[in-house]
Design a protein that fits this description.
By secondary structure, the protein is α+β, with helices and mostly antiparallel strands. It has 2 domains: 61 residues; 36 residues, no CATH class. The chain has 2 helices and 3 strands. Strands 1-2-3 form a 3-stranded antiparallel β-sheet. It is elongated and about 65 Å long. It starts with a helix and ends in a 5-residue tail after the last strand. The structure holds zinc ion (ZN).
Length: 106
């Protein structure tokens, strides 16, 4: 799990650095470039933090495939799309408790 976050952080870090390099080329002073670097760093922090929080929340909702209400098994019950965001629904076979996750589990 931790490894995934590190990979995600590094990949987004590279993209952010590439973005900063482009911006830095257009700027005249190192003061402006430093400001752009700090700004880029905050964007990186925000995106990485967002992904970590979402993934952790997803894992918590999924609970290893066990219903948080009764311990029953979750079965895929549907999917929806909202502005490019995919949501997947799983319902407990025992008590019908439904959860919403961002990735397909099984
Ligand atoms: Zn249940």
């Amino acid at each position: 799990m931790m490894t995934t976050f590190i990979i995600v952080g590094v990949v987004i870090g590279i993209i952010c650095l590439a973005f900063w390099t482009l911006v830095a080329l257009m700027l005249d002073t190192w003061g402006q470039r430093l400001m752009a670097l700090i700004f880029t760093f905050f964007i990186w922090l925000l995106i990485t933090f967002g992904i970590v929080v979402q993934t952790t929340q997803d894992q918590k909702n999924w609970n290893g495939g066990c219903c948080t209400e009764c311990g029953g098994e979750y079965k895929f019950s549907g999917a929806s799309e909202h502005r490019g965001n995919h949501d997947y629904f799983y319902s407990c076979v025992e008590c019908d408790h439904t959860i919403e996750v961002d990735t397909i589990k099984k």
